[in-house]
Request: fold
Amino acid sequence: MTATTAELAPSEPTTPPTTGTATLPPARRWERLALAVLLIGTAAAYLWNITVNGMGNNFYAAAAWAGSENWKALLFGSLDPGNFITVDKPPLSQWVMGLSGQIFGFSSASMLAPQAIMAVLAVALMYGAVTRATQSRGAGLLAGVVLAVTPVVALMFRFNNPDAAMVLCMTAAAYCTIRALPKASWKWLALAGVALGFAFLAKMLEGLMSLPALGLAYLIVAPTTLRNRLLHSLGALVALIVSSGWYVLLTMLWPESSRPYLAGSKDNTFMDLVLGYNGFARYLGKNHMGGGKNGNPFGLPDGYELPESFRGGFGGGSGAGPDRLFTGEIAFEISWLLPAALVAFLLVLISRWRAPRADLLRGASVVFGLWVVIDGVLFAEMKSGMHAYYTLTIAPAIAGSFAIGVYELWRRRADVIGRVGGAALILAAGIWGFVVLQRNSDWQPWLRWTELAVTVVAAVGLLVLALPPVARWDRFRSRATALLLAVGVLAGLAGSAAYAVATLPVSHTGGGPTVGPKMPEKPGPMDMFRKQLQTIFGGDVDPQLVTLLQGTDTRWSAAIDRSSPASGLELASRTSVLAIGGFTSEDPVPSLSQFQDYVRNHQITYYLTTQVHLPDAWRTDKKPAETGPDAPKPDPDQGIWYPGGNADIRNWVQAHYTQTRKIGDMVVYDLTAPAH
Reply:
């Protein structure tokens, strides 16, 4: 026996519209209040104490500062106001942060607050997309909540990497696609193309990873002829090309001598950056990022080898393979509801199998479910450069797939599929949440056991209720099913929500931020060298060096190898610093002759180089007599290393200018006073 319409939640239609001809019912008072609480709560949580992250990633913070100082730097995403070189990504995110700095003055708050506001917009778009798809504001609220309590979302929407802007645009594209599905609206589909175009301008090809899912959903579901569906898709593709291509065209038409070098490219062209360093070359592990001699991104001198523990520097999970999304830091950032989202996608397809082709709910499930599957496979097989936080791109897909699945099972809770499917969905969330929490077993141990116990009890209860009913207990069974579904779903969210909350108060800086509670530091024999390496990546700047740079009046106060230390110097001194070789130190700029011209024309005051002492234990050329208790003490001048960089420029400076001072690990040469 199935439940009557009256037994279902009053706000839920028994059968969602297949074409969207039915209008969305007016929001009830509690629904409006709940949406307000969700959005205001997201804003409050994400904006609260946001300056705890300081400058976040100095690399992008320096570009935001440069954009707040100079309009050309804002337009191109330059690392420095002198417009020598850009960051290695398109400038959409820098436009937002730099413009905020121009309006409110550059600071941690003016830079990071727009990122948090993007989170509120993304949550609102998730609510709108799922509400439209299901005709249920409750389902939309659930989707918004799931997105807001995903740890990687709580991390990156309070950080200054370009991922937040990219994912906001991808979410907007999904919303527009779902708006296009019910009536085969070419206008809404074109807007989806525009949104993906701007996602491309945030992080290039990664911003287009949801494109196959959105395109296939429209081709399958839109209620019009195949010819029209293909024409509409072509129009959306044109909109995507126009909304992103104008910037590509700008970089081509703007004279190279009058704009900054496009960092990461080999030939100062945007498309080389798209297809190479940030595109297929990175995906296939063949780009020029992080290779270097002896498996490190700097290139150790002859006779030294980098220990295994220092090699790589990316990932946060296992290497390429199907388990990557479920291991290491990646598991903590994104995987909490990933199994449940996949189960939800499968269950919706089974439940709606006999629905018409234009079924909107199934179409929306295809949007989010295929997004999860396609992006998950791509990430699993990515060969290099895989930061854990890249998985932010599938957070909206997981939220949407999960919420639509919960709604469909709720709608069919009087049927066997609703109860058995609900049990499977809850177990997928609860058991995997327990597994992930178990990996940090010292933190809140009660939580994982509570989540496991509640979800197992709820799932078992649903399975029991799926047994052949006794007629007089039917009403009780309907209410018990609703209660168990609600409790099980909330319990399944517990681990993700707790880790997201634990992420918010922790300070996150540098290029590889992580989620969850602050972990205790584990000192080791390599701590000193690790601290030295921080200088290479733009760590703390000595106050003496800050004062030195602030006393300059040239176009660039100094030049230094690599963008990371250059950005740290810029932020500390608020002076423009020339980054030799860009982020990896392998960009072919400036050439020696170009650098000599800058010096000759008094455009650079100081040349800085980092001097690191390599641990004696890293030597590979030791003789037997040099080891053991009677071995002689190592020569203090042995193992001096200048990490990476342009050796031609360094050798020329050392040959023509005298070292004026040494500040910490930084050697300073005054380029205004050549040696005699």
About this structure: The first strand starts at residue 556 and ends at 561. The chain is about 55% helix and 5% strand. Strands lie at 556-561, 577-580, 604-610, 612-613, 640-641, 657-663, 666-674. The longest helix spans residues 226-253.
